[in-house]
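Researcher: I'd like a structural prediction for the single chain below. Treat it as a standalone chain; there are no partners to consider.
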Amino acid sequence: MRTLVHEFDWPDRVVVGTVGRPGERTFYLQARAGARSTSVALEKEQSAVLADTIDELLDRLVAEAGSKVSVPAETPAELVDNDPLDQPVEEQFRVGALRLGWDPRTAQVVIEAYPVEAVGEDDDVLPEPDAAEPAEMLLVRIPVGTARAFAQRTRQVVRAGRPACPLCGGPVDPDGHVCPPADGE
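Model: Treating it as a single chain, here is the predicted structure.
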């Protein structure tokens, strides 16, 4: 079976955004080129790790001796995107695995997202490394400035949820919060 690839090379827009209230939000990675758009659902933690890993990759490129890639240290103001997700948000698949890479030929950050594969009624697992090709994937290639802007926005979206408890770090709901016991019981 061939993999259906939702490919965006130099997209008009690529963002992480949410649908729902804090504590009940669903995170989406959304890419758009012209009238074509694809949205895949992510976990909050996946979103945060993706943003951090993109910044680490860009920082390594800056620090690399003899690098010919011009990477902005800060997000270029003209690339800041604070708009909501494009509507309607139609989930193509739920992300099970993400892969981040660098294409030196085009000087682009490459984001690959693969779906969680269902194996039973309610059991989801990540695909085995030797398993057959996934049914579909999202492939997005973005320039370094867009990658900085993407990482910045993603961190802002992640932080916009429920505030963290100053004692235990757990999320504080609008109706209150009780810290778990310190001894783990």
